[in-house]
């Protein structure tokens, strides 16, 4: 089979890339649905059929004589979120029962499946990239069909959307199952094969290579410890304070809510209407520009999340987004945009610069964190709760935005600007830096009483002197060698006590508990 390329000495197979791309088709579907509604709301035939029109309105005059009530426009845009909310909540128990492939929910599936910590951020961020790609494609198709006569102007856009879930449903069945799910269901041989495919190895190569076997041992240790000490999880376990499970549940829900409160979907859902209101003659073109900025900058976001971790980009991004939303709102409030073309252009530039920051930080970053913050035992359910929070706020903003705009107009931007500052503060005070750590090590970090969110970037698990050391051991494993037997090093355990350990290619946790789950549950 062979590795496609190497990252920090770790082989990456074509299956890893294919998994990210196929799973991210769920993001494309979401993005396509998000992008199409903004332009469809302005199409003459759609207005004539579903909006309130004055007597004598025709297809030629619908744009000027028809308009949606606040309730109707809010419901048309927001109903998408109701279905996704239900899917997010049902996804966890179905995925736990059937496996990740057969029960793939786009919000949770790609984050639950086990992927390599060395490229986990990039693979998960691909989901967000496909969301932005779907939005851009929807904008482009809409501008191509807006000239069609009759219902085909908007029905074509909706009909094309049928192709995307077909691609997802067929492609995901060709991918390996989650190794963590397989181990949970007593299928370690298949789990090793799955890990081997991710690294570009055949079944025989995976059996003799230390890298997939090391990952399998960590997962097996984690599962065994949970079975012996904790047992199966239920929804109530997501709200237990032990091992900071409740802490992480509330953190995930807060971050997903705050992602919606950045204000990005204000532009994606109602952008065409907003830009039309500031005096732009062709708001469809402006939407494509905004979508292109969103899509292009997401590539930068993938690189930023890998190079600078999670905390720093989210803090800087929140401040940057807040700045440009303040400019957007202040400009639209100071003068009437329709009477001042310069103000309208400033608002468009501000919106583009806001989207630039969002696409490079909060858009991919929050989805990455949902995949790497929660403990294995409750990860699926916590991811569902966090994603459900996203969709609840998605619905609320989509439904109430028309009412709010009518009440406070562009001052709405001040609300979003304040929420972005709040988001930056939440990240600084509560989020731990999880980049370059295995999912099991992230669980240890959250349970280390000596580790605080603002110092978490320097934390490393027992047996490693730093996160750079993790990379070096990964390279050593790739070279089919490990640290010399009997090599001694002093490490700091989870309770802050310096201990002497012996590295024989194995890392033990605290007080006899396995590496992946220390400390023991109370």
From TrEMBL:
Domain Major facilitator superfamily (MFS) profile stretches: 1-435
Gene Ontology CC annotations of this record: plasma membrane
Cellular localization per UniProt: Membrane
Catalytic activity: myo-inositol(out) + H(+)(out) = myo-inositol(in) + H(+)(in)
Annotated InterPro entries: MFS_dom, MFS_sugar_transport-like, MFS_Sugar_Transporters, MFS_trans_sf, Sugar/inositol_transpt, Sugar_transporter_CS
GO-annotated molecular function: carbohydrate:proton symporter activity
PROSITE patterns on file: MFS, SUGAR_TRANSPORT_1
Protein's membrane topology: Multi-pass membrane protein
UniProt keyword annotations, A-Z: Membrane, Sugar transport, Transmembrane, Transmembrane helix, Transport
Disordered: annotated segments: 473-522
Protein name per the record: General substrate transporter
Organism for this UniProt entry: Lentinula edodes (Shiitake mushroom)
Lineage per the UniProt record: Eukaryota, Fungi, Dikarya, Basidiomycota, Agaricomycotina
């Amino acid at each position: 089979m062979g590795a496609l390329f190497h990252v920090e000495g770790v082989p990456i197979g074509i299956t890893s890339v294919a998994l990210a791309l196929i799973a991210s088709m769920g993001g494309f579907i979401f993005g396509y649905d998000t992008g199409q509604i903004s332009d469809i709301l302005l199409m003459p035939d759609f207005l004539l059929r579903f909006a309130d029109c004055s007597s004598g309105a025709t297809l030629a005059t619908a744009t000027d004589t028809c308009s949606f009530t606040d309730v109707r426009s809010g419901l048309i845009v927001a109903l998408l979120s109701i279905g996704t909310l239900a899917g997010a909540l049902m996804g966890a128990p179905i995925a736990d029962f059937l496996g990740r492939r057969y029960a793939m929910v786009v919000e949770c599936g790609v984050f639950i499946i086990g992927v390599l910590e060395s490229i986990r951020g990039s693979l998960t961020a691909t989901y967000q990239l496909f969301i932005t790609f779907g939005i851009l494609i929807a904008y482009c198709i809409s501008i191509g069909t807006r000239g069609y006569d009759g219902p085909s102007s908007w029905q074509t856009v909706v009909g094309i959307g049928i192709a995307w879930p077909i691609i997802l449903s067929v492609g995901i069945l060709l991918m390996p199952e989650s190794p963590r799910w397989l181990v949970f269901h007593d299928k370690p041989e298949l789990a090793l094969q799955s890990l081997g495919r991710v690294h570009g190895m055949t079944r025989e190569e995976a059996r003799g290579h230390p890298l997939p076997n090391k990952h399998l041992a960590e997962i097996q240790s984690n599962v065994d410890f949970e079975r012996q000490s904790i047992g199966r999880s239920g929804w109530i376990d997501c709200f237990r304070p032990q091992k900071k499970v409740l802490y992480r549940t509330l953190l995930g829900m807060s971050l997903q809510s705050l992602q919606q409160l950045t204000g990005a979907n204000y532009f994606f859902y109602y952008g065409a209407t907003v830009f039309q209101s500031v005096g732009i003659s062709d708001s469809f073109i402006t939407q494509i520009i905004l979508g292109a900025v969103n899509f292009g900058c997401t590539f930068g976001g993938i690189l930023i999340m890998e190079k600078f971790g999670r905390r720093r980009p989210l803090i800087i991004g929140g401040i940057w987004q807040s700045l440009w939303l303040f400019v957007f709102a202040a400009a639209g409030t100071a003068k009437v945009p329709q009477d001042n073309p310069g103000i309208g252009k400033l608002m468009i530039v501000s919106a583009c610069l806001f989207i630039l920051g969002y696409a490079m930080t909060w858009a991919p970053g929050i989805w990455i964190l949902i995949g790497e913050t929660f403990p294995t035992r409750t990860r699926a359910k916590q991811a569902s709760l966090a994603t459900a929070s996203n969709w609840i706020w998605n619905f609320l903003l989509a439904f109430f935005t028309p009412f709010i705009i009518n009440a406070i107009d562009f001052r709405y931007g001040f609300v979003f600007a304040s929420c972005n500052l709040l988001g930056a503060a939440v990240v600084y005070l509560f989020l731990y830096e999880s980049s370059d750590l295995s999912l099991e090590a992230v669980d240890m970090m959250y349970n280390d009483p000596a580790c605080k969110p603002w110092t978490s970037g320097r934390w490393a698990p027992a047996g490693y002197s730093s996160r750079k050391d993790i990379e070096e051991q990964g390279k050593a494993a790739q070279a089919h060698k490990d640290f010399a037997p009997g090599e001694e090093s002093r490490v700091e355990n989870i309770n802050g006590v310096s201990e002497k350990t012996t590295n024989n290619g194995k890392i033990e946790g605290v007080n006899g508990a396995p590496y992946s789950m220390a400390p023991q549950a109370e």
